[in-house]
Amino acid sequence: MKKCCLCLLTLALLIYCIPALAETGEEMDDLALYDAAREACIYQAAYEHDSIWNLTEILCFKFELSQPVSAVRNLIRNPDEEMQNNLTELRAAYNSLIQTAAYEDVTFDIWEGHDIPPVPGTEILESDSMQVGCLTDQVGYRPVINDFRLEDPASAKATILCVPSVRAYRSEMLDFAVIFNDLGYNVLTLEPRFNKIEEANSFTLLALDAQRAVRYIRYHAVDLGIDPDKIVIIGGSKGNVAHVMSIYYYDLDPVTYCETIGLTLDNYTADEIDQVPANVQVDIFNYGPMNIINSDTGELALTVSSLYEAENLPAICFLAGNNDRGVCGQLPGIIAALNAHNQNPDKLQRVNWEVHIMDGVPHGMGAAIEFSNYVQIWTEVDQFIMQNIQ
Predict the structure, then answer these.
(1) What does the pLDDT look like over 35-54, one tens digit per residue?
(2) Fewer Cβ close by (within 10 Å): the C or N end of the chain?
(3) E strands in 167-321
(4) How many whole angstroms separate alpha carbon 262 and alpha carbon 280?
(5) pLDDT tens across 157-208, in order?
(6) Which residues contact residue 49 at a Cβ distance below 8 angstroms, ignoring those fewer than 6 apart?
(7) Going by C-beta distance under 8 Å and a sequence separation of 6 or more, which residues neighbour residue 383?
(8) Percent of the chain beyond pLDDT 70?
């Protein structure tokens, strides 16, 4: 039996009153409805799977996938016929939500103990951002982990942290939870920050959140009932920055990490969680950047990590569709670098790795539940994890 993941009739009857559902969708104006839908989707584990999945799909594909939040809000204020139809669908989906838990019971605040999550520079807020809505955080947003552990977390094969591709495509994480719960894993899904900062113009906040999420899980392993030495990460597209943070910078606290990349993190004091290592046992690159080789030399760049000196590199699994040219174009160089490394007699340790390429699958396919050849790969990923978890 899975926690907060599958449609459980007994739990579906328990409706908790929380701020996001204090009003029904019929009582809200259109802008309030949009804000409430975004908030509800952040805390996806609080809802019955199918009802929140439907809301996330509408929010992603009909509101936020191709335009900034400011444009969405302007259209909501002065809706054309298409937006009016979208709002009608969103209202119906919001009113159909089945809540099974209170937010605080199924989410974890990864920056607990800090009034403000660390921002090394000037954050580009929602009102100023030209990013599409699915890459924009709400003002004051605090990143969380959603809890999809098994009913008995200690019985799991391992704990998988899923890091999403974009903010609004939250149904991707729900799909992963169902798949890996069924395969016998605890699943924790990260809702990181996607806002950029002016000084870096990169996903620095996402990287900090990904590292902190691993540390949070390991630090609270006893409370969570999990094995801290059996942690796996799977990313989606840009969510694969999590692998960089678990390999190259796993032992750097946020202040030191920011200094390493040329940024200054003011008004932040590292805590006990920041001292916990952020390494994992298995990295699963799912249709995303595979930056583990040196672009200048073509050599395996992860050997610069102190994990290499400690003979503790993670096993690595690459997944992509052959219609994803950007990702598949990286694979020949990566395979060559991995082969060269593993055949080098002077290596400190070999890297266990696999590559899976599926026919007819594009970028951005999430958990790929619509592609039967990709869905089958999850059982092979399960086998790969089990071969490499000590």
Answers:
(1) 999 999 999 999 999 999 99
(2) C
(3) 186-191, 231-235, 282-286, 315-321
(4) 25
(5) 999 999 988 876 677 888 899 999 999 999 999 999 999 999 987 899 999 9
(6) 5, 6, 7, 174, 177, 178
(7) none
(8) 93
The single-letter code of the amino acid at 95 is N
SS3 (DSSP) at 141: coil
If residue 128 lies in a helix (H) or strand (E), which one and from where to where?
A: none
Decide if 131 contacts 22 (C-beta within 8 A). no
Domain borders along the chain are 9-95, 106-388
SS3 content of the chain, % helix, strand, coil (to 5): 45, 15, 45
- State CA 32 to chain mean position distance: 26
pLDDT band at 8 (very low <50, low <70, confident <90, very high): very low
Instruction: Kindly give, in sequence order, each residue whose CB lies less than 8 Å from that of residue 191, ignoring residues fewer than 6 positions away.
Output: 42, 143, 144, 145, 146, 164, 167, 170
> What are the CA-CA distances from residue 384 to residues 236, 315, 366, 381 (Å)?
18, 9, 20, 5
Which pLDDT belongs to residue 300? 81
> What is the C-alpha separation between 248 and 303, in angstroms, rounded?
9
pLDDT tens string 14-43:
333 344 454 555 679 999 999 999 999 999
Q: Which residues pair with 266 in a beta bridge?
A: none
* Reported CATH class of domain 106-388: alpha beta
